[in-house]
Amino acid sequence: MDEERGARLRRLRWHCRRALLELDLMFQRYWSRVGDDVEAADAAALERLVAMEDHDLWDLVCGRTETDDPQLMGMIERLRQE
Amino acid sequence: MKVTKRTFDAVIVGAGGAGLRAALQLSESGLKTAVITKVFPTRSHTVAAQGGVAASLGNSEEDHWHWHMYDTVKGSDWLGDQDAIEFMCRKANEVVIELEHYGMPFDRTDAGKIYQRPFGGHMSNFGEKPVRRSCAAADRTGHAMLHALYQRNVRANTQFFVEWMALDLIRDAEGEVLGVTALEMETGEMVAFQAKATIFATGGAGRIYYSSTNAFINTGDGLGMAARAGIPLEDMEFWQFHPTGVAGAGVLITEGVRGEGGILRNDKGERFMERYAPNAKDLASRDVVSRAMVTEINEGRGCGPNKDFVLLDITHLDPQVIMQRLPGIREISIQFAGTDPIKEPIPVVPTCHYQMGGIPTNYGGQVVAPRASSMNVAVPGFYAAGECACASVHGANRLGTNSLLDLLVFGKSAGETAVEDVKKSTRAHKDLPQEAIERSLERVSRLDTQKDGADVHEARLAMQRTMQNHCGVFRFADKLKEGVANILAVQQDVQRTGIKDKSKVFNTARVEALELDNLIEVAVATMISAEARKESRGAHVRDDAPDTAEKPNGRDDQNWLKHTLWFKEGNRLDYKSVKLTPLTVPTIELKKRAY
Q1: CATH number of the domain residue A49 falls in
Q2: How far apart are CA B521 and CA B453, in angstroms?
Q3: Do B108 and B141 touch, CB atoms closer than 8 A?
Q4: Distances in whole angstroms, Cα of residue B480 to Cα of each of B445, B472, B530
Q5: Nearest by Cα to B98 from B413, B548, B442, B345
Q6: Among positive and negative, which fits the CA dihedral B257, B261, B265, B268?
Q7: Could you read off the pLDDT tens digit of each residue along chain A, which spans 82 residues?
Q8: Three-state DSSP class for B133?
Q9: Which residues is B562 bridged to in the sheet?
Q10: Contact status, residue B507 vs residue B444, Cβ threshold 8 Å
Q11: Which ranges constitute the DSSP H helices of A1-82?
Q12: Which of A69, B406, B493, B580 is the most exposed place for a label (fewest CB within 10 A)?
């Protein structure tokens, strides 16, 4: 993995440190599953999700709110327990 | 290695509620103020606070700060300092109304006033009946508070250093605090922040426990830094636990689940609360339920392959009730317990929630430590507020909604005191002692050079399991004694952790190793302080200090009405008196704490 991509993924991992434990645990589970094997499209979706407010993101995960953005919904599905 | 120096009037570590409130006080007074924070301010753990902030506004019914003070002293099991408690309760209305003026979207009454709702332990007329005292912004009070304070800080030109980790206090030979060293995650660069006032608002350290409701960022960084710089930690044996966290995850299952008819069961399927609280059963108070759960587990009636949790059963409830009245609980259970509570019970354990102890301060937010014959001498240049500090208003147990109040009141007062101190100081910044900076650099560089280092994840897990098993919600003399030996052994491993990834940019492995350095200080302080306190008081409940006629609830005022001080050097303990004299009103006299 080139240094630039490695740094981007490490930054993304840090941005998965959240104010709510629920989100921390969900992201931890995701990273343990994928390791560094994250496709560029998924990394882009994650970057958009981690820019959200914690409560809004958790509402999306719980299905209390919805988004019609297929890229984000796809990533939300992957973050949820299968 | 050369370290860049940046100079400010004040530097604040932590950008949760307390840090932002303190920063606002400093910036608005015209001082050049820096805030160092590991995460973006509105990602701080204050976001998780839902309940509200206590203030005796009396918008819904008659209320008075003196009644609030009484409730807080009683809640603290008389370990809280009554001067600080009076100060906090008297200031509550002022800080809440200020926040309203900053744009905080509090819930409103029809008349447009701040709406107030009741909350456990808050009563009118000195414990007579529940009172509506909590001011909330729907279920996002902490979140709304952070946003209001952050916007205001931006307006006041507070300078934020986001995604920086503070590493060590810079303290000179005279004991004066002159700033902190910090690491910029983006570059791996180390910087010395020089300041006339250094304020810690780093939050709690709930991650010392295996089961914790705290987010991953709560690693007690301020406590670790203070301990390494020779500052004692106060009353670290007192941690508030919530009875029902999801086993293995810690996510909170609200009391509302038992309110709706949820039943706790052991491995035999028995409704065990009938034996411990025949009347209230599953709705008994938090400490009674937690103790019953631990007793079931300790006596071999826990569930699962390791028999280390009990079950919260709502399978008998109508699925529509679960969906309508307990929104979110089903999702939490599916996500973190892997069970659908409509079909199967939820595995739960008592879970660490809040740290009552911390860096000792007075009600002005100054950090205080023993010196010569006095136990409370201000450490020049050093202040602390919020969960990392111990003013001490929560004493042996905290009332709900007093944590947000604590961070507003003491964030502000630490800021005010720092402004006064900086403005009256006429001299330039003192030179930074090179040896203090070198020590900090060495701590970081050791991680890169450590041979056959211990694994950070494994060492952290060992610490968390030791704390959970030996120093949980219900404590036993032999387990505590064993726990002291075990946690000191874990500490040896932490001192020789190593990391494989040596990269500079966003090296999260390095950050986690440095966080563990802080967590272990808190864990050791907690275990040693808890082992030494031979009574039950508030959240510290020992099996060998039961409820008797001579010592109601196991509390021993004759020997233990005192604050613990733990010093890192030699793991030494000392004790200091509880301040029983308030500022203006008579002492709230000792009596049995009963609700």
Answers
A1: 1.10.150.250
A2: 19
A3: no
A4: 34, 10, 7
A5: B413
A6: negative
A7: 688 888 899 999 999 999 999 999 999 999 999 988 899 999 999 999 999 999 999 999 988 899 999 999 999 999 986 5
A8: strand
A9: B577
A10: no
A11: 3-15, 21-34, 40-50, 54-62, 70-79
A12: A69
Cβ-Cβ contacts under 8 Å for B148 (sequence gap 6 or more): B99, B102, B103, B104
Is B289 in a helix, a strand, or coil?
A: helix
Is B1 strand, coil or helix? coil
Structure tokens at B353: 């929630």
Segments forming the whole domain that contains residue A75 = 3-80
Checking ipTM against 0.85, whether it exceeds it is yes
Contact B338 A80 (CB under 8 A): no
Tokens for B44?
């701080």
Query: Per the residue annotation, which of B90, B132, B228, B286 is the catalytic one?
Result: B286
Answer yes or no: are the C-beta atoms of B392 and B537 closer than 8 Å.
no
> Tokens 């701590």 — which residue?
B443
Give B-chain residues touching A60 at CB under 8 angstroms.
none
Q: Residues of chain B whose C-beta is under 8 A from some C-beta in A?
A: 38-39, 42-48, 140, 143, 163, 185-186, 212-217, 249-251, 327-328, 331-332, 334-336, 338, 503, 505-508, 511
Q: Is B90 a catalytic residue?
A: no
Counted domains in chain A: 1
Residue whose tokens read 């038992």: B258
Of B493, B331, B415, B468, the residue nearest B95 (C-alpha): B415
Q: What type of residue sits at position A54?
A: D
